[in-house]
Design a protein that fits this description.
Shape: globular
Distance between the termini: 37 Å
CATH architecture of the largest domain: 3-Layer(aba) Sandwich
Strand content: 15-25%
Strand order of the largest sheet: 6-12-11-10-9-7-8
CATH superfamily of the largest domain: Type I PLP-dependent aspartate aminotransferase-like (Major domain)
Largest sheet: 7 strands, mixed
CATH class of the largest domain: Alpha Beta
Radius of gyration: 22 Å
Number of strands: 17
Helix content: 25-40%
Structural class: alpha/beta
Bound molecules: pyridoxal-5'-phosphate
Number of domains: 2
Amino acid sequence: MSSTIPSQGHNLDTEALQRLDNKVVHPWENFGGIGTHKRLVIERGEGVHVIDSDGNRMLDGPAGMWCVNAGYGRREIVNAIAEQAMELAYYSPFSNATSSVGLLAEKLAEYAPGDLTNIYFTCGGSTAVDGALRFAQFYNNALGRPNKKKIIARIGGYHGSTFLSASVSGKLSDKTNLDMAENIILIPAPKPLLRPAGMSLEAFCDEKVAELENAILEAGPENVAVHIAEPVLASGGVIIPPEGYQKRCLDVCRKYDVLYISDEVVTGFGRLGEMFASEKVFGIVPDMITMAKGLTSGYQPMGGLMISQRLIDDIKASGTDYKWFSNGFTYSGHPVGAAAALANIDIFERENLLEHVRDIAPYFAERLSELGQLPVVSEVRSIGLMAGVECDLDPETPDESRDMAFASELDKQCMKMGLLVRPVYNMCVMSPPLTITREQIDFMADTLMKGMRAVMEQRGL
Ligand SMILES: Cc1ncc(COP(=O)(O)O)c(C=O)c1O
């Protein structure tokens, strides 16, 4: 079947589009098979659905990449982008101001927890994390503590793909064949499923908090600059730490004068039913919050870093003469990205999207939890509108590649039935657009169940 995008004037069929795509080096590219892939070509999006180049309509389980929070085909965002681009496509943020960027800063400050009312705009999540880590270095240098350099992050965490943000990411297989920055300490993931049989959640939480404290003590608090943590480890498989963990980790950081960055690139903008989850969901006011993705619902690439006024006051009051933070991008504060973000936030407010997520999340959790009855599912985790279904075909004989093959086959089965899911190792991770309805959640859960049963049958399980 042929595919036509009138605005681009082509009429290429799927095979031709896939051939073109083979000149594209994708993220996480497998250079063993480069040039031979046949990737699904996504042509259009409508609400919670995407449509491929053969006209197949699929519910978008991952919302693009945890990002199309307001859903596809939002005319208001598109108009805001077009109007801003026509009026002023770009101007340098280095020494000039633009109105949409200023208005967005004001809007974000309204939602910011505590005194995190200063915003540094970036091109996406990785650059926000990179900026936050560099700001932590800058802060300690300005305060005359040049040894305070070490960064503590967690195994299973994901923070991006610049040199520094990739270095603090803790998905260990992603580090193969790549060099990493120094001064990084990775502590174990706060993943309750991994606790030994018989250990209570409280004892597990104590252990994970103690691991952070011990890491600080071993390195020497005078050498540790910052701890970076996603409130819920998203790409690591929706790992939900035990209750109270985030608050206790923040307390440990405060005790040793270690800064705390809450990476809300995924959890921000409604995913957990709040604009920012740090304070409202987890009771913490960190020193910095990083954001991206849902900020523009993916309509424009944009990220940001909220910085506490306290840190800025400390730098102002420090004895250092040279107070320039020499870090910035051509697109730090892009007027078109800011216009998209403002229109996006406007939709959240007009349509009460945060309330919708809070209302529907228990149903999402309930329906997906049914998958837990299957013998191949070791755990179903969910919070807000994000969920992870972990597959373990035989806990007696662990085999990661067997379980990964199962999850990837599940992906194919679900796709045939009109549901896109995202396999991550042996897990299937979901984070649909926030506008999802009960009927669409039913479709997701029922399709996953059918897909699981089909793959189990294929494998004689
Ligand atoms: C928690 C978290 N931080 C940072 C990033 C990096 O964001 P980006 O891909 O926009 O650079 C991601 C991306 O998935 C993420 O999940």
